[in-house]
Amino acid sequence: MKLPPAVMVHGLEQARAALAPGLAVTLLSGPAAAVYAGVGWWQALVAAASGQPPPPHVLDCGEATGRALEALRAGQRLLVLRAEPRLFHNVAERAAQLGGAVLAEAPPALDLAQPGAERRLEAWLRQQA
């Protein structure tokens, strides 16, 4: 699956900043955000930042297979899951049935929590496209 360049966001202002240049972007949650923040938070953040239709957005579930399944039930279609192969396969199969995908690793991303990242954002999006 080919996605636009990824930008890791940890809150609404960062999500809006990632979308501000008007370039193709994939919003990526922080590592294991499904565990500590949940799918509802992530989907609300994406909706508030982008409106409809939202850009591609990936929720990182860490090693939490249960959270990944919960996210799929809530309508999240792109996930990161670092689980043992059998569990990963089961979740990936379920995601595929729903038209989604599960990644074993997060895509390379510019983390907007890093100092100076916002200044490098547009160059990152253009370079990675």
CATH classification, class level? Alpha Beta
Q: Report the uncertain regions.
A: none
Query: What's the shape?
Result: globular
The strands making up the biggest β-sheet line up spatially as: 5-4-3-2-1-6
- CATH architecture classification: Alpha-Beta Barrel
Please summarize the sheet with the most strands. 6 strands, parallel
CATH topology call:
TIM Barrel
Q: Which class of secondary structure composition applies to the elements? A: alpha/beta
Quantity of strands, as a count: 6
From N to C, what is the helix and strand string?
Answer: EHEHHEHEHEEH
Strand fraction band? Answer: 5-15%
Helix content: 40-55%
Total helices: the number is 6
Distance between the termini: 14 Å
Number of domains: 1
Give Rg in angstroms. 14 Å
